[in-house]
Write a structure and sequence with these properties.
This is Helicase. The chain is an alpha/beta fold. The chain contains 33 helices and 22 strands. The structure holds adenosine-5'-triphosphate (ATP).
């Protein structure tokens, strides 16, 4: 079949005659006996591991630190093993390979041996299992037969064979030939709202991607439905199996476009027995910040542009700006003068130290205090002080509130949050940082106290700022936290007394100055310090902004901005990455237009492309409509080839007003199936209401609800990467016109369905969709 790129002649034979029945039963019974034995072994291993875990836990929490630490790591290891043994219950064994002159190999979700070390089951990721996915008649790799076992629970309910050596067919064999069935059966099934693993039906071109080398950057380019996401997840499982030690230490990060998408894929790796992987959006990659606020596309596009790296650097410099006039510091007994020359010299020293802003501050402060101490000595008439007296004087000055305040103005401690809020809140600062007038208008915002002020596009900027600012000395943090708590407590007392809103004010002050983040950071650290030993690699990585991952997988990678790439690259110093996407589907204004443009700056000569060419999701009839739209994106682009036909043409229906949309959607709902209405972003609320008010159970929101409801209303950005049994695209003309990348958006919308597609429109149907069959209005 065409899914194996070097498949050569057709090699699947289907025999469906009645005489085959009995021999088929014999084969099933034989396989059933084998599979039952595997489950018996699995049960035994589970019981043994449970006993080992109980043994460790029974030792309690006493002993030396080292004893406890060893026990913890054994307990962690046994729990992980147990979780893995439980995860493989469904579909434990799904394949058998018959090789010339050898005993058959059974392929499954993990490797099993008996007590004599005889192999009973081969992990699908092991090198010997590779022919299960790659063998073709042209290149049989020693395989005479590949058998797919279908199981329900622990029962074998069917077998499908691909025979590569037809001369060796026995009568029994002839009875069970039914190639492609496993794949096609799997593709035709109703969608559940969660992605499933495809371990039993991985195709040859996909297997090449899954087993590609760990090193360097692998780009997986492919049209919609070619399995990029599912393949990337299997690659994660493969890499963890093959390079377990290296990756267990440094972890694997999978980045997806939004939380609904992460929900959609979250069960795949656990079903493959892998749980210690961090799934995240870009917006969640900065510990302690939740990026939930929304902002217009053009604002996000400015924030995502590569130029923002310089803007942030200038914004930091701006906070090291020297005074235009000398600063007089009144200490009561005498007044000290801090002139520009002293400040300039101190700044020069601090910058030459090449430390980040917050650490360079120490150099700046030391210089300034030195100069002030000398002045003070003179003012006190003690011109000839020795070094130790001067040191005392410097320490005295350090704690003087007037000196502290002057230093804080000249070279303040800054959190990334403070830097960014200060920048967005001041047109003058933005101008100094190099932003043009139009950009300043877009980015300007009055500071909004509250936790929802960060957007996804802010996160890479916070991370960039954190790099340039560096950490704040923990002692300073602690002092700041104490001070903030005191202020809060004072405000609380004031509130009790006066019943006014001072507490709210104090909280707002804390938010605005970023102190609340400091407090949170402190508490977070304290909470985790004691139980760090129990954290998995993924958990430790998630809490550490500077974590260097062993491997990073980026899905829907075309959507990432230049600033997001900078952040991800910092997490991947070894540049071991898998980048999965489709340039034709780019929707975000800050997204990519070519892989070269994205990757050359970071991994020139170290990235390679694999292309997936077969569409497993969208049937031929639907893909024909989508392919027309693809020509709008690029005349030379070719849509992937679909493997299935359904015989059902996509339809289009013109309506007079939106009131008709709900009943049309209701009429398309199929019992047990899942339908999505994809709407223009600018009309999401209105069209969401039109559908949810007319269709019981319909939801118009992202998240788990959207995956589980029989009908969901989503924008293109929200539906990206997901799939549904049926899709209705509402107002396609508006989707096309909504942004500069409207054609890409419409292409994404049209390729989400596994079975049926319809288009509903109030205005004229865009010419490009004329392949849809118009439905007459009754
Ligand atoms: N070898 C396979 N066996 C069974 N199902 C498969 C196989 N390959 C892909 N699929 C199924 O095809 C569908 C599309 O896969 P996936 O979502 O990974 O595609 P994609 O390339 O990421 O698509 P898009 O770019 O549109 O998001 C999924 O339901 C997936 O399970």
């Amino acid at each position: 079949m065409n899914t194996n790129s070097n498949a050569g002649p057709e090699f699947h034979i289907t025999i469906n005659n009645n005489e085959a029945g009995t021999t088929r039963q014999t084969q099933l019974a034989r396989e059933q006996r084998y599979v039952a034995g595997l489950y018996e072994r699995l049960d035994l291993l589970r019981a043994r591991t449970r006993k080992q875990l109980d043994g460790v836990l029974a030792q309690g929490g006493g002993g030396t630190h080292q004893n406890r630490s060893e026990r913890d790591s054994f307990a962690g290891m046994y729990s992980e093993r147990l979780a893995r043994l439980w995860a493989v219950e469904n579909g434990l064994c799904f394949g058998r390979l018959d090789l010339t002159g050898e005993k058959p190999l059974y392929i499954g979700r993990l490797g099993l041996s008996d007590d004599e070390q005889t192999r009973l089951l081969i992990d699908w990721r092991a090198p010997v299992a590779q022919p299960f996915y790659r063998a073709t008649p042209a290149e049989p790799m020693g395989v005479t037969r590949r058998r797919h076992l279908q199981t329900r629970g622990r029962r074998v309910i069917g077998v499908d064979d691909d025979l590569f050596d037809l001369d060796r067919l026995s009568d029994d064999d002839r009875a069970t030939l039914n190639g492609e069935a496993a794949l096609l059966a799997s593709l035709g099934e109703k969608r559940t709202g969660r992605m499933r693993d495809i371990v039993a039906t991985i195709q040859a071109e996909q297997d090449r991607v899954i087993r590609s080398d760990l090193n360097g950057v692998l780009v997986v380019q492919g049209g919609p439905g070619t399995g990029k996401t599912v393949v990337a997840l299997h690659r994660a499982a493969y890499l963890l199996y093959t390079h377990r030690e290296r990756l267990a230490r440094r972890g694997v990060l999978i980045v997806g476009p939004n939380l609904t998408f992460l929900r959609y894929i979250e069960q795949v790796l656990p079903s493959l027995g892998e749980t210690d992987v961090l799934l995240s959006t870009v917006g969640e990659l900065y510990p302690g910040v939740t990026a939930t606020a929304r902002e217009p596309e053009d604002v996000a596009a400015v924030k995502g542009g590569a130029r923002m790296a310089q803007v942030i650097a200038r914004a930091v410099q701006d906070r090291q700006r020297m005074p235009r006039r000398p600063i007089d510091i009144d200490l009561g007994r005498y007044t000290l003068r801090l002139d520009q020359r002293v400040c300039e010299t101190a700044r020069g020293r601090a910058l030459r130290s090449r430390r980040p802003h917050n650490q360079a501050r120490a150099v700046f402060v030391r210089q300034v205090l030195g100069a002030l101490a000398k002045q003070a000595a003179k003012a006190l008439g003690r011109g000839m002080l020795d070094e130790s007296d001067l040191a005392d004087l410097r320490e005295e000055l350090r704690t003087e509130p007037a000196v502290k305040s002057a230093l804080n103005r000249l070279w303040p401690y800054l959190t990334p949050q403070q830097l960014l809020l200060g920048l967005y809140g001041s047109r003058e600062r933005m101008e100094y940082a190099g932003l043009g007038a139009a950009e300043r208008d877009l980015l300007f915002r009055a500071p909004r106290p509250g936790r929802d002020q960060w957007t996804e596009a802010d996160v890479p900027l916070l991370d960039e700022a954190a790099e340039l600012l560096g950490d704040i000395d923990p002692l300073v943090l602690r002092a700041a936290a104490t001070q903030a708590e005191e202020e809060l407590a004072a405000a609380r007392r004031a509130e009790e007394a006066q019943r006014d809103s001072e507490l709210t004010y104090a909280r707002e002050v804390l938010e605005l100055t970023g102190m609340s983040d400091i407090l949170d950071a402190e508490r977070f650290a304290a909470r985790h310090r004691d139980d760090e030993i129990h954290l998995t690699t993924a958990e430790r990585a998630a809490a550490d902004r500077t974590w260097a991952y062993g491997h990073i997988i980026v899905d829907e990678a075309q959507e990432l901005s230049a600033m997001a790439w900078r952040m991800l690259m910092r997490h991947s110093p070894n540049r071991s990455m898998t980048i999965v996407g489709d340039i034709a589907q780019t929707g975000s204004a800050a997204g990519a237009t070519s892989w070269k443009q994205v990757l050359d700056p970071y991994a020139a000569g170290r990235w390679r492309v694999e292309t997936l060419s077969v569409n497993y999701r969208t049937p031929v009839e639907l893909m024909a409509v989508a392919a027309d739209v693809l020509t709008l994106i690029g005349p030379s682009l070719r849509a992937p080839e679909s493997v299935r036909e359904t015989g059902t043409r996509p339809w289009s229906r013109r309506i007079a007003d939106l009131g008709e949309l709900g009943p049309i959607v209701a009429g398309e709902v199929v019992e047990g199936g899942r339908l999505v209405v994809i709407v223009p972003a600018g009309r999401a609320a209105e069209l969401g209401e039109a559908v949810t008010s007319a269709v019981p159970g319909a939801v118009a929101a992202q998240g788990a609800d959207a995956l589980e409801a029989p009908v969901a209303v989503l924008t293109v950005a929200e539906a990206k990467g997901l799939e549904f049994d049926a899709v209705i695209v509402a107002e396609p003309g508006e989707i096309l016109a909504e942004s500069g990348r409207g054609a890409g958006d419409l292409y994404v919308a049209l390729t989400r369905a596994t079975q049926r597609l319809g288009v509903v429109h109030t205005g004229p149907l865009p010419e490009i969709l004329s392949r849809c069959e118009p439905v007459a209005v009754s």
